[in-house]
Specification:
elongated, about 40% helix, 4 helices, alpha+beta
């Protein structure tokens, strides 16, 4: 009942693939399960749980250029906790990717502006010669994102499997996580006095 999971696959190919998992448990329990699994001695991955976000990644000793990170935002939606996961490359790789795309967009804009200025002055628009190389850089950067996903597919599966296992953990939670209140009332607290 509380462990029911429903997966919503991502739609189409994305540079940063996404998924969604719905749980019928409080978000604090979900976050604590992942946190406990990350702190286990035999934990094969690294990561952290902070506020309403979980970040998972492979240990630095195993990381490659294409190694992904999994960022999961935990959102309470009525009686359901929604985990919104997104795979992303290492921040350095992502910044390089965005910089290449920005370079392409700025270069295309500048080339088209200069070509338009040349054309308006009845000159041959030689700035248009910059378009093919700039388009090639942009297309290559975009295509490399999917090539990287192909190389990182096993690690992406490992990150997702870790999250699923942590969510389905059958081990009892520590007493500070469980609701210890009796069904009809509130938990009694001992007061020193």
């Amino acid at each position: 009942m509380g462990r029911a999971t429903r997966y919503t696959p991502c739609m189409g190919r994305e540079v940063r693939p996404r998924f969604e998992v719905r749980r019928e448990e409080p978000s604090s329990v979900v976050l604590d399960r992942v946190s406990l699994r990350l702190r286990a001695r035999d934990c094969p991955l690294c990561g952290g749980v902070a506020e309403d976000r979980v970040t998972l990644y492979v240990p630095p000793a195993r990381q490659q250029l294409w190694s992904p990170e999994l960022r999961v935002d935990v959102v309470r939606n009525g009686d359901v906790t929604v985990l919104q996961g997104m795979y992303a490359p290492h921040p350095h790789v992502w910044i390089t990717y965005v910089a290449l795309l920005a370079f392409t967009v700025v270069g295309l804009t500048a080339a088209l502006t200069f070509a338009l200025a040349e054309w308006s002055m009845n000159q041959r628009p030689v700035a248009l010669y910059a378009l093919p190389p700039l388009l090639a850089v942009g297309t290559a950067a975009y295509a490399l994102a999917f090539v990287g996903q192909g190389f990182a597919a096993d690690e992406m599966d490992e990150l997702r499997a870790f999250l699923d296992e942590a969510l389905e953990a059958a081990a009892p939670l520590p007493s500070h996580i469980r609701n210890l209140a009796p069904e009809g009332g509130q938990a009694s607290s001992s007061q020193a006095g």
